Input
Amino acid sequence: MAQQFTYDEKGSTFLYFLLSFFAMILIPFTFFMWPKGVKDEEKRLRNQCRIHGKSKWYKKEQDNFRKKKSKPNLRKIFLLLCWVGFFVLVYKVSNIEHDFVEYDPYEVLSIDREASKIEIKKRYRQLSLENHPDKGGSSEMFMKIRKAYEALTDEETMKNWKEHGNPDGPQAMEFGIALPKWIVESHNSIFVLGIYVVLLMIVLPTIVGIWWNRSIKYSKEEVLLNTTQLYYYFFNKTPNMNLKRAQMVLSASFEFCREYNSEVRASTPKDNEDIPDLIRTLELMSISENAKERPLNFPYSVKARVLMYCHLCHIEMPSAELEVDLEYILSKTPLLVQEMVSCIAQLTVYAHWNKASMPRLESLENVMKMCPMMVQGLRETKSPLLQLPYFNEDFVKFCHMHKKATVRNLRSLAMLKDSERRQVLRRMGDEEYETLVTVMKSFPDVEIHAEMVVMDDEDKNVITAGAIVTVTLTMIRRSLGDLNDEDENGNGESRSAGVEEDVEDENSEQQQQQVKLKPWEKQKKKKNVKKKKPAKGGKKTAKKVEKQKPESVAGEGESSNARRDNDSSHSEEERDDESEDEAPAATSNDEEREEQEWREMQAAAKKKEQIALSGSKRTHTVYAPMFPTEKQEWWWAYICDRKHHLLLTAPVLITNLIDDATIDMKFPAPQKPGRYTYTVWFRSDSYLDCDQKQDIKLDVHEAKEVEDHPQWNISSDEEGGGESEDEGISSEDQSSSDGE
Output
């Protein structure tokens, strides 16, 4: 059968293709690009107004929300127009005339199927006169009428119609191409070729080039690779880096350089006047530090460092342009600090395996301090109480001079009674004091619990030399406002008192049961005790009993022998009972172990599912009035050896601590047996004086010797003996064969 390819002249097939392609793009595009509800955003800002109402980022969010609310939403209009076009395509596709219709000559002639040949001939004459080309009719319609008449009157034509569905007989198989015919026409070839050239040779290579140019500059964490190499260089050069040195390295990041980052504003002549004035102001405060190394002495690095110090010292910017630069630097700081932490962790691992200079633990801690300092706008020497609103140096002095207890941190201030706290801050207004208390109660207070196990060993609680120790760290996030509520309610004391009362009640019930026991029940209990734990010194007691017996009675010997026989028979029965009881006990212990292992596996699987599902990094909004963007509470967790200034585990950034979270950290145990004390640190990247730590003690035992399996213990003598025996057998076989 012949084949024939036809293009879609009417565009019906092409419309089906276009409709399906348009739907594949429009549906996900609408799902991701449809703007969020204005009411939800307004509700979120209203809830945060009480605490974050005076923050910089909150004012920006509020201004942006007002602009969105006042201006027409162009995104919604564009999406609605796209959907209107989609429904127009659906309407056109639904009204397409189908060309592939079964041929029916009766329908062409508009007569009944039961019509006679005379009626068919009469109808043919009538239609041929009406549609004859000489009388203004259509030639195509005239040919259709003639073909229909022949299909109903001529036998051969009727046979072709009934067998092949066409009066002309078998036709060529047609394949439709979902493209309009005008695309392949010769006079349109230049335009079609131009479109292909623009799309495939200009647009597509440009998109790939932009993506490749960005991918070779940035890492996975959206940090410039040159910046990462800069961090590696300085941490390797200065293993013990103090806080000022760490700030200088941070200011030298290439994210703040116009040559490497186009988002940075170009410097103006006015900046050359304002920056020296700020440097003089900082020199009066003895903060600035001269740097002669490259790129620490580059203009962009000096500018970033001066703006950072101004932010920490609460010095106002002389121009709006410098204020914009400072906001950009602060918005990039948390991401850059995370990159610095990861560089220190990788250098520690590299130094451990290659015996290079290892960064000290103090360098890591100084780097971690920079993030909350920049978020809160406080220097390391200032009191953490200055993070609270309306707090100044005078109120800090009042807190330090408190008679009953010195208030030096946030927790001690939160633990005070409201009357005492109000007395200390009596110079503060009522409205300001209420705002301060509200903000203080929102600050985090995290409780951590650490458990150590060795997962691969039989006894998980025994730590041997060189074993991989898994520390399961559980974090429970509360607020400082919960501490004062617990003290007022006295929940801790009532719980402990209730536990003691329960223990006393259980002891009294056990004593009453022992008093009420009957004599035979006591004897049964004694027998059971004898079965489990035989009494020590049994021979001595038996000798004492024999001495007390009178030897003059002759019949007592026989009775004593009979008693001994009975006792031996009873003892054998008791042993049998014990063996029968021990068998199910062993099986029950094995089942309990299997159930416990299954529960642990399920718990580990649930932890992995929780970690996988908790993809959102939105936890609790940080109170940071001087930070330009909205910041979420994140935490670092790591294990260290403070005695030797070593980092044992890579710091883990926890971004899902809303109420509680659990993570696993692994490190190898020391190679020598002994007692070791390590510290689990839990540091905040947003607040000062909210860090937590817990000491863990390791009792390291000697590692067990690996015993070889008896199946593989084949000595050389056995191997030689086997060979000699085989040789002897073969020699005997040979001699017997020779004899035969």
